[in-house]
Structure formats: C-alpha cells, structure tokens
TrEMBL record:
Transmembrane residue ranges: 15-42, 49-67, 167-191, 217-242
Coiled coil ranges: none
Organism phylogeny: Eukaryota, Metazoa, Chordata, Craniata, Vertebrata
Homology family: Belongs to the DHHC palmitoyltransferase family.
InterPro entries reported for this sequence: Palmitoyltrfase_DHHC, PFA4/ZDH16/20/ERF2-like
Pfam families with a match to the protein in the record: DHHC
Reaction it catalyzes: L-cysteinyl-[protein] + hexadecanoyl-CoA = S-hexadecanoyl-L-cysteinyl-[protein] + CoA
Subcellular locations according to the entry: Membrane
Domain of life: Eukaryota
Designated name of the protein: Palmitoyltransferase
Sorted UniProt keywords: Acyltransferase, Membrane, Transferase, Transmembrane, Transmembrane helix
Keyword Transcription on entry: no
Alphabetical list of PROSITE patterns matching this protein: DHHC
Domain Palmitoyltransferase DHHC: 123-254
C-alpha cells in the first residue's frame, strides 16, 4: 500500500516538470525582452515605450489564461449519475453483462443520456462507479471522469474539458500572439546582431551598428525560441479552432460518438455560430477574457435535428384535406422543445427496452417448461 502511495506522489511531482519548464522559459523571455532588448539595446525612447506597452498586454493575457487552464479543476459527473446503493450492490454482485446492463438501463430512466457504447450499451465507468454523461470520459492521468473531456495536456498538467476548454483556447491564442509579437519586434535586431556576431570586436563596426555586448546572445536565442514555439502553437491552435467550429472534442474527432442510430461525428454540431457560442458563450464582450462563459452545465448537450437520434422525438404533421403534404410548412423545433420531447421519448424507449428484455426472458422460460412437460 505504501509503495503505491509513494509512486503516485512521485508521478504527481514529475507531472509538473513540463509546467515548470514553460514557466522558466516565460520568465527568461520576459527578462530578455524587457531588460536586454528594450532597456539595453533599443536606443529610441518612443520605440521602447510602444514595445513595452504591447508586450505587457500580451504577457498578462497569456499568463492569465495559462494560469486559469492549469488551476481550474475538471468538472465531474454529479451525484444523480451515481447508482443508488441497492442498485450498486446488485450491479457488483451480478456476473452476467446482460443483467448488469439491465440494472444500468433502469437507473438511466431519469437521466438525459443519448450516447451509447459501440455495442449500444449504457456507458458506465467501473473505476468511478458512475454512469457517464454524454461526452464524458475517464482520464487515466487524473483518475477521474471529466465532463466533455477533450484531452489530458502535460503542458498544463491538467485535463482539458468542459470547465477549462475556453481557457485552453485563449491560452493557445495569447501564447501565439505573445510569440508573434516577440518574433516580429526582435527580427530587425536579430539580423543586426547576427551580422555582428561574425566580427571579432565592436571597433570594426560602423557607427550605426549596435555595440557588441552580452545582450546579443539573449536577443538571438529569444528570436529562435519565439519562432519555434510560434510554429508549433499555430498548428495546434488552428486544429482546435476547427474543432470548436465543428463542436467536437479531440476524442470525438478520432472516435465519433455513438447514438442509437449509430455513430455520428456531427451529432453535436448546431451550426457554426451556435458551436462557437457553446464554448465562448452568448456575450461576445467576454470572449477574449479568461472567465467562464461556456453554455450549459456539462452534463447535457443539445443535439442537431438533422439525422437526429432515434430517442429524439419527431413531429408528424397531418396535412389538411385540401393540401398536399408538400404544401404543409414544416418549422424546426426549438432547442427547449427538442429537449423536452427527447426526455419523454427517452424514458419511453428505456421502458420499451426493459419490456423487450422481460418478454424475451419470459418466452425462453415458456419454451423450457413446454419441452420439459412434453418429455
């Protein structure tokens, strides 16, 4: 027991190494830009002020969003997704998977669940002992079920999910702005120092050239580091912007969610604007600020009406006698109407599922009794 606990503590400690590395790089970049470049290298006072002003704005937003991404705890399923004590004991004692699923189906009658496993069963986490809400997955690194889990990021030592996905997107955005700004403003001094490095002494330099001092090494490495991080962050940021526009998580991009009608990679897509609002919220003035504004509670998510789940109700319109079916206008349901009808239909489908299982078991018992009586 003790060695396992010690090993777990060591793993948690080692997990902070990437975060410490990023923090050290950021601190060095601050010193190299503010002190070595702006104070010791740039001769023009006006240029210094403009550079320092925009640098600190991007630096503050970058650090703020990074901090929120790291220290925002992942959201977990609520207690309503836990099995009642009696059902939990029955589930643990039951050895047959069919009987276990029957217990889960009964417990799921009052839960808004629309996704299934690949085999069409209720998604249940044996580790956390909870019925998984839609888009919820178990993170082995965090050892918990995370609502709308996207991925576990070692660079923030945290699980990126419903509670901090907006912060993660802003972290990528402001880190990209931070690196781009440094690379763009340092470029001219990088070129001057690069040519200066080929000379042995500052005496051979023209009068307009920069002096040969220790600042040149910081400026040279600052440009290389900023350009390197800029390229890597740009690809990752572009990918996650594409995911936000499609309303998918990284997990769903590789493995499409399964509904009763089958897998559907666009099952949660509501259109580009609504997909953006799902992550950033309705009020655009808060989109660029690292404060939580995402829609919903992380437990339930609206699904699209096109190619809808079989559990979601469909409305059949009866045309008037004098009108053909093509002439009857069809208006789409609102999200609230769709969810209300879906919950009612969801309960009915679960009851039908349980009734079918009971009917099948009763038929098998009848056949067995008849064969025994005949023999």
């Amino acid at each position: 027991m003790a060695p396992t606990h010690v090993l777990r503590c060591c793993q948690r400690g080692l997990a902070w190494i990437p975060v410490i590395f990023i923090a050290l790089v950021v601190c060095w970049s601050y010193y190299a830009y503010v002190v070595e470049l702006c104070l010791f290298t740039i001769p023009d006072v006006g240029e210094k002020i403009v550079y320092l002003l925009f640098f600190h704005v991007s630096f503050i937003m970058f650090v703020w969003s990074y901090w929120k991404t790291i220290f925002t705890s992942p959201a977990n399923p609520s207690k309503e997704f836990c099995l009642p004590k009696a059902e939990k004991e029955r589930y643990e004692k039951e050895e047959r998977p069919e009987s276990q699923q029957e217990i889960l189906w009964r417990a799921a009658t009052s839960l808004p669940l629309y996704t299934r496993t690949g085999a069409g069963a209720i998604r249940y986490c044996d580790r956390c002992q909870v019925i998984k809400p839609d888009r919820c997955h178990h993170c082995s690194a965090c050892d918990m079920c995370v609502l709308k889990m996207d991925h576990h990021c070692p660079w923030v030592n945290n699980c990126v999910g419903f509670s901090n996905y907006k912060f993660f997107i802003l972290f990528l955005a402001y880190s990209l702005v931070y690196c781009l700004f440094i690379a763009a403003t340092v470029l001219q001094y990088f070129i001057k120092f690069w040519t200066l490095c080929r000379r042995k002494s500052a005496e051979n330099c023209p009068k307009n050239e920069l002096p040969d001092n220790h600042a040149k090494f910081h400026v040279l490495f600052l440009f290389f580091v900023a350009a390197m991080f800029c390229i890597s962050i740009l690809s990752l940021f572009s990918y996650h912007l594409w995911l936000v526009g499609k309303n998918r998580s990284t997990i769903e991009a590789f493995r499409a969610p399964v509904f009763r009608t089958g897998s559907d990679k666009n099952g949660f897509s509501l259109g580009f604007r609504k997909n953006i609002a799902q992550v950033f919220g309705d009020q655009k003035k808060y989109w660029l600020i690292p404060v939580f504004t995402s829609q919903g509670d992380g437990l339930t998510f609206p699904t699209r009406l096109v190619n809808a789940d079989a559990e979601q109700a469909t409305v059949t319109l009866h045309p008037e006698p004098n009108k053909s079916a093509a002439e009857v206008p069809v208006s789409p349901l609102s999200e609230s109407q769709n969810r209300l009808l879906s919950n009612n239909q969801h309960a009915n489908n679960i009851d039908d599922h349980l009734a079918n299982n009971t009917l099948k078991s009763a038929e098998s018992e009848t056949i067995t009794i008849s064969m025994e009586s005949e023999s």
